[in-house]
Amino acid sequence: MLTPRKRITKKQLKEDKFITYSVQARDWIEENSRIVFGGIVVLVVILAAVFIINNMRVKAEMTASAELANAMRVFESRDYGNSVALFTGIVNSAGSTKSGRTARFFLAQSLYNTDEYAAAQEHFRKFASSCKEDDYLRAAALAGEAGCLEQQNQFSQAAEKYKNIAKKFSPLAARYLLRAARCYAQAGNDEQAKTIYQQIIDDYPNSQEKSDALLYSSMN
User: What pTM was computed for the model?
Assistant: First the structure.
């Protein structure tokens, strides 16, 4: 008499497939052990490198932060000659850190205060190009660059930079438009200066700069 065939359940089918796949996976690993373990070694090396790099960055930031605090005390005492040396050291050793970028801004300020306008202009420019997170500081750096041009009697170029800052940073527009007008007047471009004075009067009637614009426009 034939024995009835035992019915295979879905659970048994799943278990059977799992065993099959496990065996296949084991066989593949055994056949490709060099590739598998080589990949694991590479992954471990990459993770270790990332850890080391991040650790170095943290240490570099801590060191630069301490040096920046010391340099700031010298800067605030208006000892600009020594602050130039201190900020330069931070920029050279840790320029890519947050403290290093901040040091570059104050290096530019220190150079400006020691009449090194060309060098100050370059550092203001580099800081502005690297500063993405703080619009106020970026505007200040761009204005510093324009101020350096002004101190080098490049009034037309300075005026154009001030105008561009006014377009990009609207909360400070009246201030920088007034500086642009002043530079145009110093460059002998009285018509352009008058146009900007009138722009301040019309567009920024509640600003402090309006009074200066009214005064200067009446003098030209």
Answer: 0.71
Domains and CATH numbers, the chain: 64-137 (1.25.40.10), 153-220 (no CATH)
Find all residues with CB under 8 Å of 151, minimum gap 6, and list them. Answer: 112, 115, 117
Residue-wise pLDDT for 111-143, tens only, equals 999 999 999 999 999 999 988 767 888 999 999
Percent of the chain with pLDDT strictly greater than 70:
71
Q: Annotate 122-183 with DSSP letters as a single string.
A: HHHHHHHHH--S-HHHHHHHHHHHHHHHHHTT-HHHHHHHHHHHHHH-GGGHHHHHHHHHHH
Residue indicated by tokens 């659970």: 11
Residue 114 per-residue DSSP state: T
Element (H, E) at 88: helix 80-94
